[in-house]
Each structure stands twice: as C-alpha cells, then as structure tokens.
Amino acid sequence: MNKRNAPIIITVSIIVLLALGYFLVWPKYTEFKATRLEFEFKDEEIIAKEDYLPKLNRLIRQTEEMSDKIDIVQSALPTDPSAAALFDYLKVASSQSGLILADISVNDLFVIEEEEDVSSMINEIVFNAELVGTYESFKIFLSEIYKSSRIIEVESIDLVRAVEEEGASDNLLNYKIKFKTHLYGK
Q1: Taking the model in full, what pTM does it have?
Q2: DSSP labels, 25-90
Q3: Co-location of 61 and 95 in the same domain
Q4: Are 133 and 173 in contact (CB under 8 A)?
Q5: Quick one: which of 107, 106, 58 has its CA closest to 86?
Q6: Positions in the chain short of pLDDT 50
Q7: What is the SS3 assignment for 113?
Q8: In which domain, by residue range, is 7 found?
Q9: Per residue in 122-155, pLDDT tens?
Q10: Whose CA is closest to 177, among 75, 122, 97, 82?
Q11: CATH number, domain at 176?
Q12: Which of 69, 100, 147, 157 has the fewest CB atoms found within 10 Å of its own CB?
C-alpha cells in the first residue's frame, strides 16, 4: 500500500504545497517587495532633501549677502508704481535735504506701447514740483535724486527768488522743476 499510494501522496503533497505557496507565501512576498521599494523610495527622498537643505542654506546666505543690491532694485522698480508713492519719495528726499516741497502736480500720465511686444508697457509720468530753500539744499536734493536708483529725469529747472516775507532769509530761492519718470507694469 505504501508503494502504490506513494505517487498519489507525493502528487497531492506537491499540489498542496504549491497551493499554500501561491495563496499564503506569494501575497506576503509581493507585499514585502512593495514595502522594500517604498523604503528605497523614501531613502532616496530623504537623501534628496538632505542635499536640498545645504543648497537652500547656501542660497539664503547668498541672498543675504546681496540684500543691498536687492534693495537697490526694489527702490528702482517699486512694488507700488503709483504717482502717490513717487510723490512721497520726493517729499522725503526734499525734507531730508533741507528743502520745503511747496507744490507738486502731475502733467501727463501716458502709456507707451511697443508694437512688437504689447505685454511690456512703460508708463511715463511727467510732473512739476515747486521747492523752496537754499542753493546748497537744492544741490543736495539733486544729488540724492541722481544717486537714487529710481528712474527719475530732471527735464527743466526754473529758478525764482523767493517772495520776501518778514523774517525770511535772503538766500531762499524758489525752484520750479519738471520731472519725468518711467514706471514699468500695467
């Protein structure tokens, strides 16, 4: 009985082992393989982030080293390209140089559109300012305007003796200046 049933027992045992392997071991093996791939992906991700952090820190240091240049660019191309922001800048510059900003007005505001590239628009503002002060203060004001990185052109200057008032200094002059500036953007 042993010899006759041996091939059947061996065949059934092999079929049972294959069925157990296919239904129990194979799913665990594929799960293990997927988990191992996920861990490898996470390891690569961690290595990439570890490489990214020093690069990011280096870029931050470079940006901090160039902060003065960034400030120059930001002042040349302000985030608020309005006439009010420009007038505020002129008010501060005139008061710091010792002049009194008596009057300021906008003459023209127009847009220059280039035919080739309509998306790049240049706004040009022409405005007048009336300043009162000494000649030395006026020279300081003009040097501040030209030293600043803002795009401001002095088109004309009219010099008039200030109206004599009681207690006023003899060396006060009235300056009528025509400015032109270009602002980029819409």
Answers
A1: 0.51
A2: IHHHHHHHHHHHHHHHHHHHHHHHHHHHHHHHHHHHHHHHHTHHHHHHHHHHS-S--SHHHHHHHH
A3: no
A4: yes
A5: 106
A6: 110-116, 118-119
A7: strand
A8: 1-65
A9: 667 788 899 999 889 999 999 888 887 677 888 8
A10: 97
A11: 3.30.70.60
A12: 147
